[in-house]
Each structure stands twice: as C-alpha cells, then as structure tokens.
Amino acid sequence: MSTPTENTTTSIQPSAVSNDNDLPPLVTDRPPRVLIAGAGLGGLFLGILLDKAGIPYEIFERSAELRHLGSVMCLSPNILPAVEQVGLYEELMTVAKPVLRNTFYTGELGVVAKLETLTTDTALLLKKIPPKNLRMSKKVLSFEQDQDGVTVTFDDNSTARGDILVGADGAHSAVRQHLYKSLGKQHIIAKVDNKPLSKGYISLVGTTGALDPVKYPCVLKEESEVHYVIGDNDTPYSWFIFSVPGNKICWTVIVQLGVAELADENFSCSDWVPQKNNKMMDSIRHLKIPFGTMGDLFDATPDEAVSKVLFEDQLFDTWNHGRTVLIGDAAHQLLPASGSGAINAMQDAVILANHIYDIKPTSYKNIKAALSDYKDERFGLVEEQYGHSRISAKLLFGHTFWERIFRYVIFNWLPASVQKKQLIRDSAYRPQAVFLPPAPKRGTMDVTPQRPSKRVQQEVEEQESKKRAAAAAAL
User: Which residue intervals are annotated with compositional bias (Polar residues) in the record (predicted)?
Assistant: First the structure.
C-alpha cells in the first residue's frame, strides 16, 4: 500500500467560470481541489482525511462560531480504526470514556435490561484542522458547476472555486436544496427527494458543569454507563444520562410528538428560546434517575449548555450529480436512537476520501465516476442502518400502545443470542482509509472486507511490472 507524499494543501482562490463549452475538458495530474460546506462531524473528518492524503481542501461553515462542537458524541468500533489511522486514537483515549454497559429502567427505576461504545467531545476533530483551511460565516447561497470546475457563492457575495463540492451541511443542507432545485428544473430528481423530513420526536439536550463526586460517584469512574429510563403510561418521556470527562454528566430528554401537549408547543417554536425550554424542563424535574432527579441535573446545567433538538429522518436517493456530492445528514438523516448518525457521517467521509484519492488523473469524467462509486458503496449500508434507527427509536422513545407492546416483547422475549448476533453483525463494518497504513486489529471478531483502492491496485501492478521488466533485463 502506498503512502501519500507530503501535504501540498493550498488556499483555494475564486476564479471565473468558463462558459466556453467548445474547449476540451481539463485533465491534470494535480489532485482535485475540494470545497466542503459544513464543519460538522462529517465535514471535519473528511478534511482531516484529505489532509493526510495530500489533497487540497477548504471547509466553509455558515455559523460564526462552532458552539455545536462542544457537544458530546458516542463513537463505536465501526469508526475507531479510521480514527486511529489519522493519529487521533491516543488523544481520544485521554479525553473519552469507554461505555461498557447500557442499563434500561422503567420510570420508577426498575431494571428492564442491560446491554454490554466510547464518548468524547467533538472539538477533538476541530483541533486537527489548520486554521487556514476553515472559513467561518460562509453560508452557501448557490453554486454553478461545469466540465472545468464548480464555483460556490456565499451570502457575503464572496465565491470559491474548486473541482469538487461536498455538501456536509446537515439535514437542511443548502447544497442539497440548491442541487435538487436545479435537478428538478431538468426533471431528473427522484420523487423521494422532494418529500419533507419525517418529524417524530423532540428532545432537550444538556451537559452539566462539574458535579460533586460524592453525590454522583459515576463521574469518577474511568468507564461510563448509559442509564436509559423509559416512562410508563403516565409519563410519555424517555430520558438518559451518562458521564463524560470533567466530572460532568450529559443528559437527554425525548418526547414523542403528538403525545404531550407541552412538547408540541415547544416544537411549534422554531427558534431556540430558553424560556420555552425552561418551561418544559420545569414540567419534568421530577423524572427519576439513579442519582436523584433530572431537576438536579437541570440546576447544574448552564442555560447556554441546553439545546432543543428535533429528531427528523429521511433517506435521500440522490447523493451526487456532476461535481457535487452529499455526506452525513445532508444525504441521510438517521434517528439517533441507535447512535448511528454520527458514525455514518464519519464513515461517509472515509469512503468518499478513498474515492477522491482514486481520482487520477483529475478530470471531469473521473470525478463523476468517483462520486458515483462512493454512493454505490455506501447507499446499501446506510439504508440498512436507516431501518435499524427507526426500529430503535420505537423501542426507546415510542409511547403509543403498540410501541409499548413491541418494547415489552423485545426486552422480555428476544433471546440474548439473537441480540449478540445482531451486535456482532453491526460492529463488523469498519472502513479505513486506503491511502494510510491500516490500523492494527483490536479484538477477535471478523471485520467486513473492504473494497480495494483502484489507484493502489494500479500502483501495485505498475511496481510488479517494473520488477518483471528489471528481472528480464538482468537475464
């Protein structure tokens, strides 16, 4: 396997769009220049990977500051090998806590089930992005693509020019919206892509300040345990907590839309309004946790550390067209019950980086083929995870009559062997960057084989050919 040459990332400067379609398409030996819209998990991880591959890129974030990067995410074994490849594993282990157990309770804290994951702060990724590669307050308004490149226009009237545009800008992606609008005018958009996002749940999410370890002994443990509490018939909420570094606890309260009037009222308020959140929090302060009540955690959480999150889901059919491609929530928004949303965004980044690396020489034809191959490799896997996330949401957050029946059957009658078999299957897919040395295997379970790199295969064949030619010449 080859190792990329020294990083040659350069700033991507705006330039005019060529309107001369009579000229032959540009073909060059330089790597493609990549414009990434969105500094979320997928966008940041893609930037880190491209940096390792020596591929020039810039990330454009619509926000003026990255407050969302202070949030906590969970990482599964499915992405840890790639994290290790880019040199983040050791640092990750200094700021993260392994989650060794998930315990499920009734509203009165009766244990329902225990299942035998890793929590960390997403700001870890941001530190690996050179400041010159990250542009803030850059909201995408539109873009134009042709055989020679793609030009993005931002809301401050500035532009950027590159070879590939990656929409990593979330569920309400401006890149996706502009792309679909353009495809709609050409009548080449799938019907499913015009469907509105499915809205099923709303949640409040927060992270406390440093807590007293006497009252909350869990914060001193090296491992973290996720405590899921699922309300009964009179409490249509689900809530869970887990400890994170810094003697803090991350908490989430979820309610199904249509079953609680207060939640529907909060949902109708489109903006983040602390007063609305506080009203909802006051109504659920009594909810029990193993260390007291949710109200205790609310009191230890600053207002600015509380966010309202709408759980939406949609699996779009069109992920790429021309020089434009979508990753993460821009291409597929999964319900967070299974914890797969963040992981799939980062896996998208790994596979897309692999296919961008395979582009040689850089041409419009090769770019389109690479982006199509990325979608072809990822879509079926994401489609399966999409179905799992909907089932998991019903299991953990659903409070209709039939969802309660479903939960009772799964928790009480599903054999442990079946659960273990599914867990092993879900954990087997662990894609890695083809242009970096593979991470050492950790654990004993088998891993799903990965598609080989076309470029690496070609380089190996060329090396073998040279060896045979040299051997023949020596005779």
Answer: 1-21
pLDDT at position 6 over 90: no
pLDDT for the residue 123: 58
Four-point Cα dihedral 395, 396, 399, 401, nearest 10: 20
Q: Of 277, 276, 296, whose CA–CA distance to 286 is shortest?
A: 296
Q: What is the largest CA-CA distance in the chain?
A: 87
Beta bridge partners of 34: 57, 164
pLDDT band per the 50, 70, 90 thresholds, residue 9: very low
Closest listed residue to residue 159, CA positions, set 173, 178, 139, 179 = 139
User: What pTM was estimated for this model as a whole?
Assistant: 0.84
| Dist. CA 60–CA 141, nearest whole Å | 12
Residue 274 has pLDDT above 60, yes or no: no
Contact yes or no for 148/273 (Cβ under 8 A)? no
Q: Is the omega angle on the peptide bond into residue 302 within 30 degrees of 0, that is, cis?
A: no
Residue 316 φ then ψ, to 5°: -80, 155
Q: How many CB atoms lie within 10 A of CB 335?
A: 23
How far apart, in Å, are the Cα atoms of 113 and each of 242, 311, 392, 414? 16, 24, 14, 11
Rounded CA-CA distance 76/82 in Å is 11
The backbone region for 170, taken as left when phi is positive above 0, alpha when psi lies in -120 to 50, beta otherwise, is left
Q: What is the pLDDT of residue 36?
A: 98
**Ordered domains of the chain (ranges, CATH):** 27-70+84-94+122-196+315-398+415-454 (3.50.50.60)
Sequence-ordered list of residues with C-beta below 8 angstroms from that of 449, at least 6 positions apart, any chain: none
Q: Which residue has the higher pLDDT, 329 or 266?
A: 329
Is the alpha carbon torsion for 50, 51, 53, 54 positive or negative?
positive
Half-sphere exposure of 20 (CA within 13 A, CB side): 6
Q: Are 432 and 81 in contact (CB under 8 A)?
A: yes
| Distance between CA atoms of residues 41 and 345, nearest Å | 7
pLDDT digits over 108-153, tens only? 777 766 655 444 445 567 778 898 999 999 999 999 999 999 999 9
